């Protein structure tokens, strides 16, 4: 070693990312969007109202929200040519791979209208992303089940339009179930932002290079895909299904987790920041019973999840590591009851997180102090040495 580290050269730990958007207290299990507690927003607000709050910093007036909603409805159509993009991919493709690629493909229709320094471009592309991501997501779903794509229906709310695009079929009338609609609205609100999580940090890093919203969001979708991050909601259902099908029982599974057999983890548990119960998980768990009951769905996987939580929360291994359920632990059971295939769960997370990604991209894009991101490193490699013969 040279005996010198970055710290010797005065690289003291650079200040953490500054942001005014979301506040988390991991020890107390507190989450606030622009100062408003998540519990109040989830129960009283709407996805688009919270999106406006995150992006512009204040709750919108009635007129502002009405205009925002109207603009989004009028931008839901995607270019007809873009539909052919989906036919180039195998129907077995994971919807998250389809979605991130589709967003990059979408950006090719707006070259020349995506200058981060042009406020009109930025505002219009905020609307375009919010309007079109749900449509692209529904097309990824329809593609995976071999059904025809539907056109958006501008007479419907954001959530009802999304439900119809996913579950409507050309041969029948579709009316969204109000229980599903309200539950999905609440779940999307719970996912809208979460300060410097991996995918949002990815969006900020890509955005800091001067890349436009489409490129930054596509990168964020790829980061979210990972099973340690947004992909965990899909992994939780796979884990519950394996426990059920293996017949090994919850207790035996928990022992395997504690023994770290084959690197198995209790998916949907633990968090980089929350060392207490994730406030979102609490809200999701509360609505899981209600939604399944109102949808008339009895899912043994919900009971299995509750049993798993009960055992883990009373086990020293998890207590000593401060591992609690996170937002991904119960969401999948609700999405499944709604009729979404497991591989669409992280796509739903992406739609939820989109306003946060746009808000953070906006925050750094409008901050004159923004510098290109370049995470620091501490060099741990070989000291200087000469090439043979030198
Ligand atoms: C999200 O950052 C965000 O805000 C993310 C998110 C958002 O809204 O954007 O909240 C969304 O990504 C939630 C997290 C979803 N991921 C999962 O549920 C996957 C399972 N969880 C783990 O992989 C883990 O808990 C992480 C990745 C979420 C957090 O990892 P940490 O904080 O780095 O914890 P760690 O790896 O340092 O673990 C500390 C100890 C270790 O044991 P020891 O080595 O000390 O013996 O806890 C253990 C870990 O092995 N541990 C787990 C565990 N999580 C941590 N053991 C079993 N099961 C788990 N889930």
From TrEMBL:
Question: Which superkingdom, per the lineage?
Answer: Bacteria
In alphabetical order, the GO MF annotations are: citrate synthase activity
Query: Keywords for this entry?
Result: Acyltransferase, Transferase, Tricarboxylic acid cycle
- Pathway it belongs to? Carbohydrate metabolism; tricarboxylic acid cycle; isocitrate from oxaloacetate: step 1/2
Q: Which residues form the active site?
A: 271, 328
Q: Name one GO cellular component term.
A: cytoplasm
Which GO biological process entries does UniProt record here? tricarboxylic acid cycle
> Which reaction equation describes what this protein catalyses?
oxaloacetate + acetyl-CoA + H2O = citrate + CoA + H(+)
Q: Could you say which protein family the record assigns here?
A: Belongs to the citrate synthase family.
User: This protein is called what?
Assistant: Citrate synthase
Q: What is the originating organism of this protein?
A: Microbacterium mitrae
């Amino acid at each position: 070693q040279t005996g010198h580290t970055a710290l010797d050269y005065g690289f003291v730990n650079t200040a953490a990312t500054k942001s005014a958007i979301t506040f988390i207290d991991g020890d107390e299990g507190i989450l606030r969007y622009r100062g408003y507690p998540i519990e109040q927003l989830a129960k009283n607000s709407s996805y688009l109202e919270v999106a406006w709050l995150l992006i512009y910093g204040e709750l919108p007036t009635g007129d502002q929200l009405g205009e925002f909603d109207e603009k989004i409805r009028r931008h839901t159509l995607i270019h007809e040519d873009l539909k052919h993009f989906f036919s180039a991919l195998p129907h077995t493709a994971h919807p998250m791979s389809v979605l991130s690629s589709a967003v990059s493909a979408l950006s090719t229709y707006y070259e020349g209208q995506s200058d981060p320094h042009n406020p009109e471009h930025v505002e219009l592309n905020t609307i375009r992303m919010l309007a079109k991501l749900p449509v692209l997501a529904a097309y990824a779903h329809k593609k995976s089940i071999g059904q025809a794509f539907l056109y958006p229906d501008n007479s419907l709310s954001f959530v009802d339009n999304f439900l119809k695009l996913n579950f409507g079929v050309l041969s029948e009338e579709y009316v969204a179930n109000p229980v599903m609609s309200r539950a999905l609205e609440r779940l999307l609100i719970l996912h809208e932002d979460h300060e410097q999580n991996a995918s949002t940090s990815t969006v900020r890093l890509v955005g800091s290079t001067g890349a436009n919203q489409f490129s930054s969001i596509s990168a964020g979708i790829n980061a979210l895909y990972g099973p340690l991050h947004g992909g965990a909601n899909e992994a939780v259902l796979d884990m519950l299904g394996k426990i059920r099908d293996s017949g090994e029982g919850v207790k035996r599974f928990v022992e395997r987790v504690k023994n770290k057999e084959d690197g198995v983890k209790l998916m949907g548990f633990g968090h980089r920041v929350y060392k207490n119960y994730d406030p979102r998980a609490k809200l999701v768990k509360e609505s899981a019973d209600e939604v399944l009951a109102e949808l008339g769905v009895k899912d043994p996987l919900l009971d299995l999840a509750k049993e798993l939580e009960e055992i883990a929360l009373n086990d020293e291994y998890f207590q000593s590591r401060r591992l609690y359920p996170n937002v991904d632990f119960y969401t999948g059971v609700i999405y499944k009851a709604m009729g979404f295939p497991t591989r669409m769960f992280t796509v739903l997370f992406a739609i939820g997180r989109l306003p946060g990604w746009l808000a953070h991209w906006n925050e750094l894009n409008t901050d004159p102090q923004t510098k290109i991101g370049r995470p620091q490193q501490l060099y741990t490699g070989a000291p200087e040495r000469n090439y043979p013969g030198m």
